[in-house]
Amino acid sequence: MGEMRQRLLGDVSGDILELGAGTGMNLSHYDEGLASLVLTEPEPAMLRRLQAKALEQAPNAKVVPASAEDLPFEDASFDAVVSTLVLCGVEDQARALQEAKRVLRPGGRLLFIEHVRSDDPKLARFQDRMNRLNHFLVGCDCNRETLAAIEEQGFTVSKVEPTELPKAPKFVRPAIVGVAAAQ
């Protein structure tokens, strides 16, 4: 995943918002010259770990307790919104994408690495069968059609790379890495 994260985030610049930053796995992949970096995380246990890691790796970053569906920021506040393995776990994916679009400046970019529903019908059916258990165990819906959801919310996808998440169970491996622009 480190290589995927680096390719996605290595040249991001400006004012950046990361949704559901978790334990801060992306922190080492951001350039130190960012204008600002804001990290959101709704889960209290993860938030504490994120705050500690941010102090160590990105002391200028601001950590904010917030869900992707209810961002406490002004409209058009960020040049890029980053979502890595977040849109599979939010309760309301459409609302999370609407919020991301709202806080992006015109022409701003959504950068993402996300679980997706497989294009292989057999694997997609397996994802459907395993999804309830997966959601219960890890809080993730691995069979969402996330790329279509991004486009439905008015983003223009400029780059998308189908891939697989390494070392993951077969039904959660299908993923995409991409960039979409807000209109």
Task: Report the sheet-strand fraction.
Answer: 25-35%
Mean of the pLDDT scores?
Answer: 93
Number of helical stretches of at least 4 residues:
5
Broad structural category: alpha/beta
The name CATH uses for the topology is: Rossmann fold
The total number of structural domains is 1
Describe this structure in words.
The protein is α/β, with parallel strands linked by helices and 183 residues long. It has a single domain, classed as Vaccinia Virus protein VP39 (Rossmann fold), CATH 3.40.50.150. The chain is built from five helices and seven strands. A seven-stranded mixed β-sheet has the order 3-2-1-4-5-7-6, with helices on both faces. The longest helix is centred in the C-terminal third of the chain and has 18 residues.
Notable characteristics:
Rossmann fold; globular; 183 residues; 7-stranded mixed beta sheet; 5 helices; alpha/beta
SSE arrangement:
Blueprint: H1 2-9, E1 15-19, E2 36-40, H2 44-57, E3 62-64, E4 78-84, H3 93-103, E5 104-115, H4 121-138, H5 146-152, E6 156-164, E7 174-181
Parallel strand pairs: 1-2, 1-4, 2-3, 4-5
Antiparallel strand pairs: 5-7, 6-7
TL;DR?
The chain is an alpha/beta fold.
